[in-house]
Design brief:
heterodimer; A: 408 residues; mainly alpha; two-stranded antiparallel ribbon; 2 strands; 60% helix; B: 325 residues; alpha+beta; 2 domains; six-stranded mixed β-sheet; 9 helices
Amino acid sequence: MSATLPRGAVVARAWTDLGDAVAPLSNGAGRPLTRTVKLILDPLVLRPVQHPEFAAGPMAPEPADALRDRIHAAGPVLAATAAWFVALKKERRRLRITDGNPQDLYFQRCFELATEHGRPGADSAAIAAAVLAEVHTSDGPTVTGLRGYLTDAANVGELTRLIDSVWATFTAPRPAPVPFPTADFLATCATAPDQGLFSALVSGGAGTEGAAELDRPRAALAHGLTDRDLPARPVLGRSASKGNLPKPFDRSIMERLFAPLTNTFLRAVLAEVPALVRQEITRSAGPWQLGDEVSRVLMVLGREASTGLVGGAAGGAAARLRSRWEREAYVHRALRMPSAVPPEVRADVHDVRAAYLRRLWVRVHGRELRQETVTADQVWDVLDGVLRSVILDQRDRLRSALEREAMA
Amino acid sequence: MRVSRDAVGDWPEWPENTALVEAAGAVLAWDVLGGDPVPAARIDDPERAAEWLWEIYGAAADGVLGGATDVTVPAEGDWRVRDACRALAQLNWVEAWWPASVPAGVPAVDVVVLRAERAVLTSTVEHLLDDPDAVTRALASVVLPPVPALAEQVSALAEDYGVSLSAAVPARAGYALAAGGIGSSAGTTVLTGSSTVDWALVPAGVVDAGAPADWAVVRRQGTTVLEVSVAPGPRPGPRLAARFADVDVSLSEVDALGRLTGSAPVPPSVLLLPPDRRAVTVYAPDFAAPTAPDPGAEARRAALIAYARTRSGASDATLTERTAQ
């Protein structure tokens, strides 16, 4: 018998003890759904932030027992959560709602309902309908509103002058006399993120300083962030299409804001159009064309970690990214993916680092718009998730290029 | 099983034998011909893998992660999750390598059934997969399958994930090929031969996996012509070509037997090629570049065809394999 157990095993066994009552929150193997863990168990039941002994990793017998007790104690509220989820899905079907992922949208609401009302009772349909009405009210700015605002003659002159003035006053950051300890943070960010070091990078302006070289000719181009020799000030823009966006620095204000506005459930948290547009204009003239130092630090960390993708010595985060990229080579062969790459995907495959930095920029930009920050212990998830997303996107594009070819 | 720093067991030697699952922090692989229920693994993130590795190796997971060089995976245990992973891996293999062939007697699988079954299995083991959106991604290509029980299952799943399934069957690719063309009767056939097709050079289902490509060198009206033909598979479409010596032939026509065919002039010197160089390599130019044949590959393909023939009646077969026709 070993002294420690993986947290996954402890959770799985405790979950199994809860039986069929939590089946709506479980997958076919009887384990809690990915989103059950992410949206309910972690943030609402186990709360590893307050209880570090419940964090992922090997668990000694004592905290393992405590974790099991905690899940058992939450059994009734979890069973009620599951019952509310069933009630909400039933109401959703009755109302013919098809938008959004029910798990993402309702799980935490169901936990709230379970805490407040216990199991669904006679009035459950009415309560469910009220919750659905609330969740599915599309608040927030819309694409139509954005287009109207950006093309309204009353605004165009003023907004264009704003672009000119923020770009005119922009001064390129200067390289710091002493390099920031980004490598030290990356060395352990996947396993033991150093909170203090991350705060120091942010407060010391490591992200801003790291943008210094982007104003040299072709530097931003080499980063994959623009097709121009030097980034130019953005235009306001009149239209945008999701499948055909230019590189991040070449996007109009319309194009920068378009994608986040198309997600009905995320746009509710965005600022109203006039503020959103002004913030975006200011952002466009900032280092990395981002507004928040945390985002800029992430760009610098991503740039450094992604060197592992193109050879060179690699340790820490860079070595991990490289091993993911290398594993793609044999996965690719085993899945019988094409070895000839169609022209539209070629640039991304051959310059994976540029594709990586582009995707990272889009991620952190979206987080800025939603005013979500990234903490030290989330950095590795972001850096790793971006590469996974680049790889899966490349596969999807290779497959669809093949299918188009087959239909041609 | 042998364990090294980041690998467990023996990784399948050939891509076409590999059934894999991309899990969080590790890739699991079974050799479809091996029959071992316990997979090999390549671990790239031990911390993430630790959360679920016990589902696959039981008590041996501790040794795997603890630096042991050899572990014994217990036979007894609750292996339902591992079996579900095995089935998902099998479907990944079927999608990539299923060797449908009329002459070899391997029925074609229904891609619609395959995708629906895969979405269901993906959801079963969602908790250990690398892609947090694996289920939504798997559902994206699903249309309602013609198997009522599976259709019901996948509909419920789609509802849980807020994905709208389409009931329509996607239009099959028609033959965009000109019929007739080769006058095999005309001219004098000087040399003939056949070569099997390297599966890695064409997309799945495009050519018959068990039928060879036939070639002939024909003298016709004072010129020497190379003719090549190959039987299409259940999902033809992407353009094909064949390389013989240094000559490329586009297989853009269909002959009277329904085979994909084409011809190209060749210098008379091809007749002087040593026998071992008289081989034709069929490939899809948008998929792969032609490569020299691997001498052992033909036997490996034959073994996989023999394996696939047994699958419709195998007790551990997926629904997709059992409903192939």
